[in-house]
Design goal:
285 residues, mainly alpha, 9 helices, 0% strand
Length: 285
């Protein structure tokens, strides 16, 4: 009975996964992002005209922040759907999310400097964290692109049954991560309604991702105990920890931690590919 219960959940994931990749869903996501962007512009315009509204303290740059937040929600859902297909690709998606977060923060801070600016030393020091976030986002964009190009998806299981079983476990993890993410989002909205302050639970969700990565790492030992695969998966889990720290780190250190994590997984990937080639040459010889 329990087995049938899990099979039903896996079937639900497969259905959702197929629809998630469809052009219809992509258009729907795009329309929602644009809708929230326009809503943010309207709120910014109302504030500019001193027309009373519930969000009277935000600027027109709030539209960009709001659109980025909605886009990030769908990016995180895309990350969850990637886990059963490729752990490496899901790590790359995490770096995409962090780079978008840095861009969002840069746009958010720019919203405080509308109007006339005083280009004194105090303003330049205030501008430095924004430049740091923007430059860090560009570096992560480069690192992520190189990381994707360097990936070699090698099956660690011995046969189709093992591969299917490993994939099903990752699908179950993705299902429960999705439910948790939706639950955290509902909790954030509920607390925002009570306190008039929106508090993101992204840090908690990234903490759950760390445990999910470690669980996948440990479960993969059933199929392979090769040092190369073990170290590669472990480095991916460690990178998730670094990315989790960037969410609460102060300016400059958030970029530093994210770039270190990116260089780490990129370096491990290149070393892994090189050692894999050498092992193949040794086998053929």
């Amino acid at each position: 009975m329990i087995k049938n219960f899990f099979k039903q959940q896996i079937r639900i994931f497969d259905i959702l996964d197929v629809h998630w990749e469809s052009p219809r869903v992509s258009k729907m996501i795009s329309n929602l992002v644009v809708l929230f962007f326009v809503a943010g512009l309207v709120i910014g315009l109302l504030n500019y005209l001193n027309i009373p509204n519930p969000l009277h303290q935000v600027s027109s740059f709030f539209a960009i922040e709001l659109a980025f937040n909605v886009l990030l929600i769908f990016e995180i859902l895309g990350l969850i759907f990637l886990i059963p297909h490729s752990v490496a690709d899901s790590v790359g998606k995490q770096f995409e999310i962090i780079s978008l977060l840095l861009l969002r923060d840069a746009f958010k801070e720019f919203g405080h400097y509308l109007g006339e600016l005083n280009w004194g030393m105090d303003f330049l020091w205030e501008l430095a964290p924004i430049v740091s976030d923007a430059f860090g986002a560009i570096l992560l964009f480069l690192i992520t692109g190189l990381f994707y190009r360097a990936q070699r998806h090698i099956q660690i299981t011995g046969n189709y049954e093992e591969q299917s079983g490993f994939s099903n476990i990752k699908k179950l993890i993705s299902i429960y991560l999705t439910l948790t993410f939706i639950g955290l989002g509902a909790y954030d909205l509920f607390t925002a309604y009570q306190t008039n302050h929106f508090n993101y639970s992204l840090e908690l969700f990234y903490t759950l991702l760390i445990f999910a990565d470690v669980f996948i790492l440990l479960f993969s030992l059933r199929y392979t105990a090769k040092y190369l695969n073990l170290f590669r998966y472990s480095s991916f889990a460690l990178a998730t920890i670094f990315l989790r720290l960037t969410l609460s780190a102060p300016p400059y250190f958030n970029v530093l931690l994210a770039v270190i994590a990116g260089l780490m997984v990129l370096g491990v990937t290149f070393i892994y590919n090189s050692m894999l080639e050498k092992s193949k040459d040794g086998t053929e010889a």
